[in-house]
Design goal:
Length: 499
């Protein structure tokens, strides 16, 4: 019976000294055949609660679910109980949020650093190359972004061997789940309030999650800074979006709480309906746009033709507040993540020594493929590495034997393509038992979790108006699966139980 400190409440229960409470019997298997009525009762309550509280996504079995709101909904996949996280690590992750917000803004202003760091990627990665072209045009026209809004999510894993928190990546575009993640926490609060005694859990250990309210507040403050009361927030979306309710939670909060209107358009629609007036004002369907909030545009699939690139360029040229600007978008690439981890690079952007120390402490091993020693080590021991292209949106990273095969191919072909990738140390979080509920079915698995901290940064010239951590996201997946995306169907939404 290996000694592992469990990272899930359910696991913790199993190890709990018997306090006279009957912890849940833990069986690996599927909930349908559960001996334990308590879990089945909780699952039913949870399925009802999620449906009544908008913890929903479009159902991939319904072809209209990504297009017509209210059609083909299914509960968002969720973990029945929260994962336990030491308070110290949660505080560490929250403290890093404002430091990363500052770092993104500072790096975004160094156009040459971005162009230089990505210059070799540009040669072999057409998508990143197009982003750099737009960025270069902004530099050449000396385009200034006085008002800057970043809605980021910095993702971490807690390494099982060292009990250290490592950043997996920093998302600076289309950071998902600020809408749904706080609702999962309320689901767990509800379940623990009702079943806490049986579980030996206290709902006061569930941290409040202000993800919707703070993200919406940052968007409304950016709308305010632009100072055009007739203007709207433009949400750039994909033609089919099954995660639309996560987005609608933000838009509905903007309208109900801040009286700010939003419009949803695809890049294709923007190309045909958008114009930039001589004074720089962006107009779409005749409405002035103050803020462009991207929930698309981060993947080559979002640019099926030149029309979508023209749309991206049009948005960038306008005086609207882009979230993110092309610079903020580029700062969030994996190549920049790897460059910032090189010695003496953070010192170029951050003065505060303590801040630099905290950042460095959160960096896992990150290497370009110029380091032949590392490449050879990864060929020998591929299971300790993740090979990452410059892609967002999940499902693009390379694991296990594919790391070796890909590196061997790139090496033997002496291919320039090698500069499109970075190597990252693979982090192994502690496994623990969790009940994962998807499509109404509950399965008990050994699982691992990834913690995302939402951050918002709003600046107007020299005035920093918002620099805040905005709550959190937890995604939990069966430890057997490499990929961790919720939208891609591997992970479920989870929350935190502080221990
Ligand atoms: N459909 C788009 C999805 C946007 C998207 O993929 N965002 C990336 C960061 S770039 C991300 O946050 N991935 C974690 C979400 C997961 O685990 O599935 C949306 O929701 O607007
Ligand atoms: Mg990402």
């Amino acid at each position: 019976h290996h000694r592992t400190r469990t990272a899930s409440v359910v696991g913790a229960l199993k190890n709990k000294k018997n306090t006279g409470l009957t912890p849940i019997t833990m069986e690996i298997g599927v909930c349908e055949g559960l001996k334990d009525d308590l879990v089945r009762e909780m699952v039913d309550d949870a399925l009802i609660w999620t449906s009544l509280h908008g913890l929903v996504v479009g159902d991939k079995n319904d072809k209209r679910s990504g297009e017509v709101p209210g059609v083909g909904l299914v509960h968002a996949p969720f973990s029945l109980l929260p994962m336990s996280l030491p308070r110290t690590h949660f505080i560490q992750a929250c403290e890093l949020s404002t430091i990363f917000n500052d770092l993104v803004d500072r790096v975004s202003l160094d156009g040459e650093f971005l162009q230089e760091s990505l210059s070799r990627t540009k040669k072999v990665d057409p998508f990143t190359s197009r982003l750099l072209d737009i960025h270069r045009k902004m530099m050449e026209s000396d385009k200034k972004e006085d008002i800057r809004l970043g809605l980021h999510r910095s993702d971490y894993m807690l390494d099982g061997a060292t009990n250290l928190l490592y950043q997996i990546e920093l998302n600076t575009i289309a950071s998902s789940f600020s809408g749904l993640s706080c609702i999962v926490g309320e689901l767990h609060r509800n379940l623990i309030n009702h079943y806490g005694k049986n579980l030996g859990l206290d709902s006061r250990n569930l941290p409040l999650n202000p993800s919707i309210s703070r993200y919406a507040e940052a968007l409304s403050k950016a709308w305010n800074e632009y100072n055009d009361p007739s203007s709207v927030v433009l949400v750039v979306v994909q033609p089919l979006e099954r995660n639309m309710y996560d987005q609608h939670w933000l838009c509905a909060t903007l309208r109900e709480k801040h009286n700010v209107r939003t419009i949803r358009k695809t890049l294709t629609e923007i190309e045909s309906e958008g114009v930039v007036l001589p004074d720089g004002t962006l107009q779409v369907c005749g409405k002035n746009v103050s803020v462009v909030y991207f929930r698309a545009g981060y993947s080559p699939d979002d640019y099926p033709s030149e029309a979508e690139w023209r749309a991206r360029y049009l948005l960038e040229q306008s005086s609207a507040v882009k979230c993110p600007s092309i610079s903020y978008h580029l700062v969030g690439t994996k190549k920049i993540q790897q460059e910032l981890a090189k010695p003496n690079v953070l010192e170029r952007f951050v003065e505060n020594k303590h801040a630099i120390e905290k950042l460095r402490k959160s960096f896992a091993g990150l290497w370009s493929l110029d380091n032949m020693d590392t490449v050879n080590d990864a060929i020998e021991k591929p299971e300790f590495y993740v090979l990452k292209p410059q892609r967002e949106g999940g499902g693009n990273n390379i694991y296990g034997d594919d790391v070796r095969d890909t590196l061997m191919r790139l090496k033997n072909e002496r291919s320039e393509e090698i500069s499109a990738y970075i190597l990252m140390q693979r982090i192994f979080p502690k496994e623990s038992r969790a009940y994962l509920v998807r499509d109404g079915i509950c399965r008990s698995n050994n699982a691992v979790s990834e913690l995302g901290i939402f951050g918002a940064y709003l600046r107007n010239k020299d005035k920093v108006i918002v620099n805040d951590q905005c709550g959190y996201l937890v995604r939990t997946k069966a430890s057997s699966s490499n990929e961790g995306g919720v939208a891609s169907g591997y992970a479920v939404l989870d929350s935190i139980y502080l221990t």
